[in-house]
Amino acid sequence: MLSQRLSDPSTVLTAAASFVATSMIIRSIANDLIPDGLRSYFSSSIDRFSRRISSKLTIVIEEFQGHSTNELFVAIDAYLGTKVTPYVQRIKASKGENDAKLAVTVDRDEEIVDVYEDVPLIWTLVCKEDESFGSRNFRSRNWDDRNASLRSEVRSYEINFHQKHREMVLNSYLPYILDRAKVIKEESKAIKFHTVVYGLWDSRVINLDHPMTFKTLAMDSELKMTLMDDLKNFMEGKEFYRRTGKAWKRGYLLYGRPGTGKSSSIAAMANHLNYDIYDLDLTAVQFNAELRSLLLSMSNRSILVIEDIDCSVNLQNRESESESGKDNKNQGTLSGLLNFIDGLWSCCGEERIVVFTTNHKDRLDPALLRPGRMDMHVHMSYCTFSAFQQLAFNYHRISQHQFFEAIEELIGEVKVTPAEVAGELMKSKDEEFSLQGLVEFLRKKKIQLDEPETKKDINEDHQEGRDKPDGEGEKLNLAQG
């Protein structure tokens, strides 16, 4: 009988209405009979009791710490931007002048759930109005302040989790966010290209917009993989370098004839690592103190490039330097550069790469070539068949063709640079015509190779005379953006 009455919808609605009415009457009587102070006391007591029995812990990270920005808040802002899910309804997007891509962050009152070591962590961006802002703004009369709307509210991130994970969050999770935010910032920034003007790095920094990557670089496939593996080990070697007591740096010597891809390789390295490039022309440096100032002002995660080091007039062989009677101790000599590369100054900064290029490795001071200074010597050879295949795919999007067999045979017999092959492939957008032209070009090269030795020597001397001074034909020209 009772179950039938409860299943009747009208009975349920009547009971609910009666309960609500009774609650309102009790609340009204309590408001009339219980003083405000006593009601406030009971309310705060209940809140304190509920917090004591609650297992939830909240950590608040405010945007500002005194008058300075809270580094942890900025890191969390960048980190949570990578954790946005389709369930988040409001996000903010922005792009700075020095950013390579858009930055996404959460908007106010949005919640994001992150999982770290199998622990769910709930983040919320809380924004409250700054009640003291109005009077401060009135006193300052700074009506044109573009950041006024930003400072008119107090922003903070709140993270909620079970209190038993407190030590893990403070000692592991938040430091992890700080480290991840640095990586995120580096990945989003545009690569910069720096040059020297009047003994200083030019303040007019150029964004590097070079399209070359290891994916498109025309280099022997085995050599390319070796170089990429070496760079990977360097990037992940922070603990190794610290454990072994070595500065976190690495030196690469790229040597080979003009047109073999030395500058393209540097661009590919910068894009692969997302490192800034500092192009140092040693002929523009007169004193060791000037050289030291330039090198110390470089940022971390950067590549120092010195092209055609054998042609830099201020780099003298130390033996010939000592034989001369002149006092060259203040000049920008090879010894000054070497002292920075592996002396005590080398520890001032980390995650730095030094790249030297030369057309004539045999002309270099032996002190420059030893391990610890130039750790890896990369011979930029004449074009191999695997390098040609990469060029054919770059220019014509083909990986196989009837001419490939003849080209493979000819490339194995003649000396031709990747730049020369690329020049032939660029002559026509028609793959058939382009490859046929390359075959004819290689056959002419082979005929010249088979000519009498004296005639070949004359031709080579004539060609060398037409060339620019060593290295000028392949000067670093990376700033295309």
Automatic annotation (TrEMBL):
SUPFAM superfamilies, per database record = P-loop containing nucleoside triphosphate hydrolases
* Superkingdom of the organism of origin: Eukaryota
Report if keyword Lipid biosynthesis is assigned: no
What is its cofactor? Mg(2+)
Gene Ontology molecular-function annotations:
ATP binding; ATP hydrolysis activity
Keyword Hydrolase among record annotations:
yes
Cross-referenced Pfam families, in alphabetical order? AAA (PF00004), AAA_assoc (PF14363), AAA_lid_At3g28540 (PF25568)
Give the catalytic activity: ATP + H2O = ADP + phosphate + H(+)
Q: What is the official name of this protein in its record?
A: AAA+ ATPase domain-containing protein
